[in-house]
Amino acid sequence: MIEFNDIDEIVFLIKKQYGYDFEGYSRASFLRRINRYMQLSGMVNIVNLKNDLINYPENFNTFINEIVVNVSEFFRDPDFFSSLLTNVFPYLESYPKINVWSAGCSFGEETYSLAILLKELNLLNKSRIYATDISTNALDRSKKGIYSIKDFKEYSNNYFSSGGKESLNKYFVSDGEKTIINSELKKDILFSRHNLVTDGVFKECQLILCRNVLIYFNEELQNKVLELFYDSLPVHGFLALGNKESLRFSSINDKFKIIDSKQKIYQKIK
Amino acid sequence: MRIIIIGGSAGAFNLILSILKGLDKEIDIPIVLVLHRLKNAKTILEDYLQLESHYKVKEAEDKELVKAGHIYTAASNYHLLLNENLSFSLDVSEEVNYSRPSIDVSFESFSFALNEKCCGILLSGANQDGAIGLKMIAENGGKTIVQDPNEAEFSSMPLSAIKIYNNHIVCTLSKIIKNINNYAK
Ligand SMILES: C[S@@+](CC[C@H](N)C(=O)[O-])C[C@H]1O[C@@H](n2cnc3c(N)ncnc32)[C@H](O)[C@@H]1O
């Protein structure tokens, strides 16, 4: 295992060798992910880890996949999606064209959940969903849209609690183990790589979802990323964060109106 | 600053209430509670606990700094970690021991951030969560206490902790409370 004191050296090495900047990441979770990676790969100390990072670039992909936390669910937090349905979508309806950004999309669960709800409101046709993540592995998996059916029952319950009107099955084709999302849901989604730490605005979007990503950043980086979202939203555009994230301590706090304080949905007002 | 972190699962809720009732009124050492809770349960745990305590009881928020006079609960569905600057970090990564929050995850993280400035306490529970983390706290110089398995309503959590490390203080609830009050002085 490595300790807090070792982090700076590892962050420096990764930046120099691979160009990824983890400096602003929350140190406690970064440490935990590194130790988890080391445990999974049978490394015992920092020497092993440095050797791996320096001499085995082919392992770096696995490293990144373990460091970023790609854990997600369909319709995670049904109350959040139901709030989107009541408080945000009716407003978006009035636009001729809707751009949505799902930032930190993981394996696509959140993005497809969104697409399903938009489809049920007949809004998907005029929507373009930009789904981005730092992890190319996550993006590949998102594009494939293949999931284990293990948790499907829970997803289905959450779909209904979110306000889904049909049946979740309808959007998937399953065999005994796996389930794949219908391709008609994919056609309005563009999956692409975007690093929130280093990349800038790429599109004006009326709705930005960035949920359970900011908790992995320190306050300074959170603020920087929130400013990026501010710059990507038109006035009256919506920003949705994870249940345990907020604008409260950010520099853009007074430029937003709270739409749902519990579900962390905000609207840009100036 | 020193911090007390308490982990518990099945059978631990009433123990926590008794602990809070038994705290000396003059102590204000921060206390963190990691309890297994139902997923998406809209519990009013904090309100309940507040009734029994002179501390301020609240859920630990992401990047919030730990302060004296506070009891913090771990949010359901997130792991609770601690940075070296004593601010919390939440994490939605995989469940550990079928649990999120996992006691092992928090104990490990707190022991990294606090070393010997940490007291870990493990109470009743029906699984093995917390055992490995408590061992880490002990090995990093912290104080560690396990509820006497004979007293615990569900003994498997205390038992697994004792099984993998035999230098924990093992005692009943009333002694645990005394230990906390002494540690806080
Ligand atoms: C816990 S997942 C959140 C998934 C989904 N939004 C949800 O709430 O269920 C966090 C995601 O953030 C991504 N991520 C981490 N750092 C990032 C960065 N610098 N830029 C873009 N995405 C990042 C990870 O790859 C991961 O997919």
UniProtKB/TrEMBL annotation, chain A:
Q: Which UniProt keywords apply?
A: Methyltransferase, Transferase
Which InterPro entries does the entry link to? Bact_Chemotaxis_MeTrfase, CheR_C, CheR_MeTrfase, CheR_N, SAM-dependent_MTases_sf
Recorded hits in Gene3D superfamilies, A to Z, give: Vaccinia Virus protein VP39 (3.40.50.150)
- Please list the residue ranges annotated as the CheR-type methyltransferase domain: 1-247
Q: Which Pfam families match?
A: CheR, CheR_N
Q: Name one GO biological process term.
A: methylation
Q: Which SMART domains match?
A: MeTrc
Name the Gene Ontology molecular function terms of this record: S-adenosylmethionine-dependent methyltransferase activity
Claim: Methyltransferase is one of the keywords in the record: yes
Q: PROSITE patterns per the record?
A: CHER (PS50123)
> PANTHER family recorded for this chain?
CHEMOTAXIS PROTEIN (PTHR24422:SF8), CHEMOTAXIS PROTEIN METHYLTRANSFERASE (PTHR24422)
Q: What is this protein called?
A: Protein-glutamate O-methyltransferase CheR
Lineage, uppermost ranks: Bacteria, Pseudomonadati, Bacteroidota, Flavobacteriia, Flavobacteriales
Automatic annotation (TrEMBL), chain B:
Provide the active-site residues from the annotation.
S9, H36, D129
Q: What keyword terms does UniProt attach to this protein?
A: Chemotaxis, Hydrolase
Identify the SUPFAM superfamilies for this entry.
Methylesterase CheB, C-terminal domain
Family annotation (InterPro entries):
CheB_C, Sig_transdc_resp-reg_Me-estase
Q: Which domain of life is it from?
A: Bacteria
Pull one GO CC term from this UniProt entry. cytoplasm
Q: Which reaction does it catalyse?
A: [protein]-L-glutamate 5-O-methyl ester + H2O = L-glutamyl-[protein] + methanol + H(+)
**PROSITE patterns registered for this protein in UniProt:** CHEB
Class in the EC hierarchy, top level? hydrolase
Q: Which GO terms describe its biological process?
A: chemotaxis
EC number of this enzyme: 3.1.1.61
Any one GO molecular-function label of the UniProt entry: phosphorelay response regulator activity
Domain CheB-type methylesterase: start-end pairs: 1-185
**What name does UniProt use for this protein?**
protein-glutamate methylesterase
Which organism's genome codes for this protein? Flavobacterium hiemivividum
